[in-house]
Amino acid sequence: MNDCTVSALTVEVKTGPKIVTAAQSFSVEAYEKIDVTVPGVDPKETTKPGTATAVLLPAGSTAQFVMITSTVYHPSALTYTPGSTSKTPIPLDQPLLLSGGGIALLPGLDSIAISNNMGADKPATVTILVGRTAQKAS
């Protein structure tokens, strides 16, 4: 069964232009909504960030869109590393939405590792929504 996904985006410069995209709808075979709580810095080792990982795609499926949001946005506070092949952390300093060909910007998107460099008492909740193809039978 396919689910219909609808997205629209509004970007506005406070003293400048406002751009609103037309609503786009497309079909996904399945989706995952994942909430990940990432602890703050380890209080015993203040140089060690809190970390969490999440599996985003079951084997044999392909991402069609991904949206990542967080309860915290601060330069250098949160980073994410997509997949098992990427080694370079990417700052999560704004909400992220990728669809269509933009998915190629996150290679190996089967999983994600998230690091939180905020204080020990400052966890972050990261919400990930992934639209995907159905899992292929083995």
List the SSEs and their pairings.
Blueprint (H helix, E strand, L loop, with lengths): L2 E5 L2 E3 L5 E3 L3 E5 L1 E9 L11 E6 L7 E8 L7 E5 L7 E2 L4 E4 L11 E6 L7 E9 L6
Antiparallel strand pairs: 1-4, 2-3, 5-12, 6-11, 7-10, 7-12, 8-9, 8-11
Can you characterise this structure?
With 138 residues, the protein is mainly β. It has one domain: Jelly Rolls (Sandwich), CATH 2.60.120. Helices cover 0% and strands 47% of the residues. The protein is built from no helices and twelve strands. The strands form four sheets. It has a four-stranded antiparallel β-sheet, with no helix packed on it. A four-stranded antiparallel β-sheet has the order 6-11-8-9, with no helix packed on it. A two-stranded antiparallel sheet has the order 1-4. The radius of gyration is 16 Å and the shape is globular. The two termini are 19 Å apart. The model has no long low-confidence stretch (mean pLDDT 85).
Computed CA radius of gyration, to the nearest angstrom:
16 Å
Which structural category do the helix and sheet elements fall into? Answer: mainly beta
The CATH architecture classification is Sandwich
**Total domain count:** 1
User: What is the general shape?
Assistant: globular
The oligomeric state is single chain
Order of helices and strands: EEEEEEEEEEEE
Number of strands: 12
> What percentage of the residues does DSSP assign to strands (E)?
over 45%
Low-confidence stretches: none
CATH class: Mainly Beta
How many angstroms separate the termini?
Answer: 19 Å
Largest sheet: 4 strands, antiparallel
The number of helical elements comes to 0
Any idea of the CATH topology? Jelly Rolls
Helix content: under 10%
Averaged pLDDT, please? Answer: 85
Q: Give the strand order, joined by hyphens, for the main sheet.
A: 5-12-7-10
